[in-house]
Amino acid sequence: MTSLTLAGAAAANNNGGHLSEPTDGYGQAPAVGSNDTPRHAPYMTRPDVAAGEWVQDVRAHSGPIYLRIVNSLERTVRRGGLAPGQRLPSQRALAQQLGIDLTTVTRAFEEARKRGLIEARGPQGSFIAPPKAGFEQAVDLSMNVPPVPDADALAETLRRGAAAVLARSNTLNLMTYHLGGGNPTDRHAAARWLEPMLGAVDDTHLLLTEGAQVALAAILLSQGRDGDAILCDTLVYPGLLQAAGALGRRLVPVDSDAHGMCPEALLRQVRRSGARLVYLNPTCQNPTALTLPLQRREALARVLETEGLLAIEDDPYWHLADAAPIPLAVLAPRHVFHVATLSKVISPGLRTAFVRCPSAVHAQAMTSALRATRLMGHPLVSALASQLLLDGSAQSLLAQVRHEAHERVRLARHLLAPSLLLRAEGLHAWCHVPPPWTDATLARTAQLQGLAIAPSSAFCPPGVTHEKGVRLSLGRAVDRRQLEGALRRIDRLLLSDALPAIER
Predict the structure, then answer these.
(1) How far is residue 89's CA from residue 106's CA, in Å, rounded to a whole number?
(2) pLDDT band (50, 70, 90) for residue 499
(3) Residues with Cβ < 8 Å from 29, sequence gap 6 or more?
(4) With contact defined as beta carbons under 8 Å apart, do 88 and 47 qualify?
(5) What share of the chain is helix, strand, coil (3-state, %, to 5)?
(6) Which of 177, 163, 192, 230 lies closest to 376 in space, CA to CA?
(7) How many angstroms from the chain centroid is the CA of residue 51?
(8) Is the pLDDT of residue 7 over 80?
(9) Residue 136: which pLDDT band, with cuts at 50, 70 and 90?
């Protein structure tokens, strides 16, 4: 007999009559209608050695005993130690074996049932649940992309735009080399798009690039050299981390408060590091969703002017913000590279970003950097983007995306507990991670449940440690119903008093 069988027999003989019904050695009553042995499902194995190992695993961990039971059960199932259909000891037998009261085991089994780990079969007892059919799609909350409210309308808009480009353009011209930075028509279309944000834009200050990442790399390349310092927030867009690392630039974090980067801290770091370039993402900041108020922007603009600094104003979410303040590029136009993109407000597939440079000289230097790294853009894609901007299609798509993004932000604010949600704006929500979770354990546990989220460590410059936040992107779920289900699951994880159900 196994140790578990012996324990069950001992429980039956020495418990003062508490197990009055006949048992099968596991503390379970035989199935109704049987003579002396219970009925088992055809695929069910008896819980002998594996069950004993599972109980030992409960003893080997710390924490609330009912959660140790559930988490140990989950670990054992995940590594194959318990198979679907395998019978568990009765609650009474397990309570006796662990030396705990029956209500604690009952609570553990109820939690295991809610997690889909076990199923109850009446008088037969509890069994490892079979795997659920894979009807539930994985949900990616890790990448910021705009929602697509109407895929058919988007496809039709792209078809019309491409047809217009091919009908009105010289096809051979679209398929040959072009100078980087965009042609006059592209820059005219870009200026119209930027006008609500920046007002009138001088064409000689304006460049087009294949997305904001290309723009960031070209600015860094044109405005510094290997080893230079770039001042930034303590949590930043991962694309900056990648570009700075590839180009040998040092990121120097600047302290912030509830309103964003502190002007006094910026001034101190400028004088301490000798840095001449600052990176800012002032509207719906990625990842914290913070929008710097106008007063803070004005104070930062004054530091740029008095210290003769240049700033990269990465501003992809301006169109999605509620009453976004004036950009830094308007407050300190001779000191700011303003980067806007269609990727976050229409579609990443258009691969189009616009850079308003501080001067024509800065634009020429950036153009040289663009030519050195990718020679030219994609004329056909640039022509399509310009067509959509000039015929009003882009504005129509933006209105749809804005509405859907606002609805999804409202959903996040409603579904995520106030104790967890720090901010939701633009395309993402920034959440506090309560103990005992860290951002890494939460991301891993969410992954096991089919949810991809972005931990704060993905946004940390070298030397910065942050384990208490996660970004939830709201745009990639196929619809609001899928997003609602994903947010509810995240909320339950964060609010549960369960320890992370993964190996540490």
Answers:
(1) 12
(2) low
(3) 21, 22, 23, 38, 123
(4) yes
(5) 50, 15, 40
(6) 177
(7) 37
(8) no
(9) low
Q: What is the 3-state secondary structure (H, E, C) of 241-252?
A: HHHHHHHCCEEE
Give the Å distances, CA to CA, from 136 to 95, 132, 430, 490.
35, 9, 25, 15
- Confirm if 95 and 55 have CB atoms less than 8 A apart: no
| Residue 336 clears pLDDT 80, i.e. is over it | yes
**CA dihedral of residues 104, 109, 114, 117 (deg, nearest 10):** 140
CA gap 381, 162 in Å, rounded: 9
Q: Are 61 and 73 in contact (CB under 8 A)?
A: no
What contacts 13, CB < 8 A, 6 or more positions away? none
User: Of 340, 278, 345, which Cα lies nearest the Cα of 307?
Assistant: 278
> How much is the pTM?
0.73
| CA dist., res. 437 & res. 26, Å (int) | 36
Residue 377 — pLDDT band, cuts 50, 70, 90? Answer: confident
Two tokens, residue 364: 């020429």
Average pLDDT of span 298-327 = 96
Instruction: Compute the distance between CA of residue 354 and CA of residue 385 in angstroms, rounded to an integer.
Output: 11
C-alpha dihedral sign at 69, 71, 74, 78: negative
Split at pLDDT 50, 70, 90, the class of 61 is: confident
* Across 246-255, average pLDDT: 97
How far apart are alpha carbons 87 and 71 in whole angstroms?
Answer: 17
CB neighbour list of residue 275: distance below 8 Å, 6 or more residues apart: 228, 229, 230, 231, 252, 269, 309
Quote the tokens at residue 160: 């019309």
pLDDT at 1: 39
User: What's the rounded mean pLDDT across residues 253-260?
Assistant: 97
| Whole-number Å distance between alpha carbons of 429 and 240 | 20
